[in-house]
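Case study 2.
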Amino acid sequence: MTILDRFRLDGKRLFITGGSRGLGREMALTIADAGADVVLCGRDEESLNKTADDIRALGRECVPVQADMNDMAACEATCERVVADHGPIDILINNVGGRRENIPTEEMPLEKWRELMDLNLTSVFVCTKIIGGSMIKRGSGGRIINISSINALVAGRMIKGRHYETAKAAIVQFTRATAVDWAPHKITVNAILPGGFFTEPNQRWAKIHPEVVENFRKQVPDGDYGQPEDLGPLAVYLACDASRYMTGAALVIDGGYTLV
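Prediction:
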């Protein structure tokens, strides 16, 4: 076995939420390229099918699952259906989420706060409970990757909506605690904390709040936003045998933004 063989994912199956666009799409494609089959979850049918076709073009199986993971009843039902119909799942990536709202704390309606916390945090718990729980029952180990954000460490500048910072910080601690609980089951639980990546949401922000996007760019020591494909190799590492001794980690990938 060569070192590169430890990065192969042949015979593995990934379930990823928010996998049809942006960072989720790139992680799904990269993990498929490393050999895994994919169960792909997203809301938008068109982008879901497009990404599924691109994964199949790599020679891998892909099952698209259309669901709104912001609806906790739908989230639970989707996870249970995936385990029953498309398991066993070896790799879980909890990717769905987003700031979505730019509402100051003093103006944030309680109902909206709860809705956005469900999107960014409760969905991670539900998927981990059901998909990760199935890994425990199977007894063959597994990999869980939670997508947090550098906003778990620093507040976004020139922007509101602090539900996002709160949820993403909670994901890091949930990752650490679950890693402790599930290490005896040979299930690793790690978090990725992306910085600024020029995905579709940030492209929309660039049109609505160009000053925010440009201000962020100026503060990145690397000089620019990351591209979605920059994240894929890190996801492969956390999903494969090469990272078997890493658990509870929170890995920052941000071009140096949080260093200054």
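The radius of gyration is 18 Å.
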